[in-house]
Design goal:
Length: 731
């Protein structure tokens, strides 16, 4: 197609994008920075190009969405259908489509619906499960066709809609109910509105088609059709040369519910281009262009399911005094709705939109849909899912590098989720250098909503996807391990201080999901510290209650208790000089981490832990261990020596006192089975004389090598001789 000319019947003419663009919009437009959705109506991500092929013109898009937010965009234009033998793309003109998931990611490339240069004016509808049908006209043949697709974008069947082979079909409109039944409406040569119903197998339920308008004496054209969940439907159209917007209701059997047409507008101004949408319970809304000369306003009116107006018609646009055109309206499962239209404002066409609650109350103000404002944006189409999230598609002049392309933007709706997170630890206090395990639970507090007559989407309203948690960790704490179904947690570096977790599933209303993290403490975590872990949860949907989306957990890091309970040793008295004496064992208690241990006092004293080797070196001792101290009594009579054991700052003294004389020796304990760190044959042992227990043969010996020649006086030598005789008698 060389241009995107859109001509209104009845003498009303629209400039082509080329003409308007050359005349008005060759300058550079502003580029808005689009952020994540924070409030209803905020954009989700940035606007995106739909068409893969940028050759020539892509125009007149139509979009449809299922209950879960999956959507499809169809348009007329030029597209690639393959490669020739030389690898060059084969470009044809026709109707094309592209499918998207509810995350906004494409699940297909563009594909042809009808590769015919005479195909145009596409319309699309989708059921609750994602099956959809596309209707279009063949301008040359003046016929209307449809093609059905399943939720995987796989074509099912197609056929000519009109049963009357001589009729001339104009631009069609198609609508589907929740189960996939659908109806196609079109105008016959611009004078009558025809429709034909089909079941979800694509089988015609009306043979032939039926006429909707009750008067055929005046033109009726540009129909728009909508269906509720049960298959009841309503059609709206322009009649009487733009004098009024008419509508008529039908039940799912195709039986008219109104004897004559409903007159939607009350003003005598010229009206055109109606768009109708229907909610699950049968309530509907009609939007249209209105103006005395140049269509300077978009109007709408709400109706109850029985055809009763809920209020007078109301003006939608709040900006622009001319060029308010091509409205498109869609509703969610609750009856909230969005209207999008062309807005000729500040000498260029942009796409504007306005959100409404089910009772027609404005939700926020009119807002600009397109972020690229360099050139004209035309022919918007809007669709909503059950939760109120919506997507708007339009054709954009020059943006894709050629005449025009198809662009779209996703938005968050009035329905929301209420994600809450709770984090708990299972160890408090924690020890430095150890591990801390804590669990977090994410709950979707949105209530379960089942729209009337739409059981197929139970759980779709209020479901949450794209859930992420961000855990801000204190210094010295890092991720060690995690567990949790459908959860993935990563930390870019051990010192990064943040762990990000992603939930890959869908969290339904009132449901919860949990995961466990194991955090390790580095040695930098000070003792007696309080560490705090902050956790935040987000989702793709608007969260109206952010107060419970963040939680913190403080955990104490214990100060190591290395001060044991008091301990003491029994004093030994009346011990023979130079005798190795061992203390009674004491048991260490009252500490929760190994404590330092050392000895003070008499030279040569040593200690043993849990029956191990005796040592004089400082070390550590654990809670529950037994300790024995040993020392050699002094070489003179009536002398006390003290060996002081120090554990975590608590002391216990082992006192050994020699007897006043040889006859006074009474404390001579039996040998204690301990292992000495000193070899009796070693020079160190020889240099430190002591009276030692005898061998296992029962004898006693005088340790050491002192003699008169070694420097002893005769009195000392005589005393030692007497002591030896005494010990031999005792042994």
């Amino acid at each position: 197609m060389a241009s995107a000319t859109k001509t209104k019947r009845g003498g009303q003419f629209r400039l082509t994008p080329l003409a308007v663009g050359i005349g008005l919009a060759l300058g550079i437009g502003q580029l808005r920075v689009v952020t994540a959705a924070d409030n209803p109506g905020d954009p989700i991500g940035a606007e995106f190009q739909v068409n893969n092929t940028a050759t020539n013109s892509q125009a007149t898009p139509a979009v449809a969405m299922d209950a879960d937010g999956d959507f499809v965009v169809v348009w007329q234009g030029d597209g690639e259908i393959g490669k020739d033998s030389f690898g060059a793309p084969i470009i044809v003109t026709g109707i094309f489509a592209r499918c998207y998931s509810n995350t906004g990611l494409p699940v297909s490339t563009e594909f042809p619906i009808d590769a015919s240069s005479t195909a145009g004016s596409p319309s699309v509808a989708m059921d609750a499960n994602g099956d959809f049908v596309v209707a279009w006209e063949d301008v040359e043949l003046a016929d209307v066709y449809f093609r059905r697709y399943n939720e995987g974008c796989e074509a099912r069947d197609s056929e000519r809609v009109q049963a009357n082979s001589t009729s001339n079909g104009g631009p069609p409109s198609v609508a589907m109910d929740a189960d996939g039944d659908f109806v196609v409406a079109w105008d016959e040569s611009g004078y009558d509105i025809y429709a034909r119903r089909y079941n979800n197998l694509g089988q015609a339920q009306d043979n032939p088609e039926f006429v909707a308008n009750t008067s055929s004496s005046t033109p009726a054209r540009d129909p728009s059709v909508a269906m509720d969940a049960d298959g009841d439907f309503v059609m709206a159209w322009e009649s009487y040369y733009g004098a009024r917007i008419s509508a008529r209701r039908y039940n799912k059997l195709g039986e008219a519910q109104d004897e004559s047409e409903l007159i939607v507008n009350t003003s005598s101004d010229t009206t055109s281009n109606p768009s109708v949408a229907m909610v699950a319970n049968g309530d509907f809304v009609v939007a249209w262009e209105r103006g005395s000369s140049n269509f300077d306003a978009i109007f709408a009116r709400l109706y109850s399911a029985d055809g009763t107006p809920q209020a007078d018609e109301f003006q939608v646009n709040t900006s622009g005094t001319s060029g308010q055109l091509a409205p498109s309206v869609a509703l969610d499962a609750d009856g909230d709705f969005v209207i999008a239209w062309e807005n000729y404002y500040q000498e260029i066409y942009d796409i504007s939109a306005q959100r409404y609650s089910a009772d027609g109350t404005r939700q926020g103000g009119e807002f600009l849909v397109n972020s690229n404002t360099a050139d004209n944006k035309l022919t918007p189409s809007v669709a909503l899912d059950a939760d109120g999230d919506f997507v708007i598609a339009w054709d954009s002049y020059l943006q894709d590098g050629d005449i025009s392309g198809i662009y779209a933007q996703r938005f968050t709706g009035p329905e929301n989720v209420d994600l809450s997170i709770v984090v708990t630890d299972d160890l408090d206090p924690a020890e430095p250098g150890g591990l801390l395990n804590y669990a977090f639970i994410v709950t979707n507090n949105h209530p379960i909503v089942t729209p009337t007559g739409v059981p197929a989407i139970d759980g779709a309203i209020g479901m949450s996807t794209g859930i992420n948690t961000s855990h801000t960790l204190p210094e010295g704490v890092s991720l060690d391990a995690f567990s949790g179904n459908d959860w993935t947690c990563t930390q870019t570096a051990r010192t990064a201080g943040q762990v990000d977790c992603t939930f890959s599933g869908t969290l339904l209303p009132t449901a919860a999901t949990s995961a466990d993290l194991t955090l390790s403490f580095e040695t930098t975590v000070p003792a007696a510290a309080d560490i705090t872990t902050d956790v935040n949860v987000t989702g793709d949907q608007f969260d109206a209650d952010l107060a419970n989306s963040t939680d913190s957990e403080s955990t104490s890091v214990v100060s190591p208790d290395t001060q044991p309970d008091p301990f003491s040793f029994d004093a030994r008295t009346n011990v023979a000089p130079e005798t190795l004496v061992s203390s009674n064992p004491i048991t260490v208690s009252g500490i929760d981490t190994p404590a330092p241990i050392s000895l003070l006092g008499v030279s040569g004293a040593s200690y043993s832990i849990d029956g191990g080797p005796f040592t004089i070196e400082a070390g550590t001792v654990a809670n529950g261990s037994t300790v024995i101290v040993q020392q050699t009594s002094w070489s003179d009579f009536s002398t006390t020596t003290n060996a002081t054991l120090v554990i975590g700052g608590v002391t216990g003294t082992f006192s050994v006192s020699t007897a006043s004389s040889l006859d006074s020796v009474t404390d001579e304990p039996e040998p204690v089975s301990v292992i000495s760190n000193e070899d009796p044959s070693s020079p160190a042992a020889a240099a430190d004389p002591a009276i030692t227990p005898g061998s296992s043969g029962g004898g006693c010996s005088l340790a050491g090598n002192r003699s008169a020649a070694g420097g002893l006086g005769w009195m000392e030598a005589f005393g030692l001789l007497l002591l030896a005789l005494f010990r031999r008698r005792k042994c």
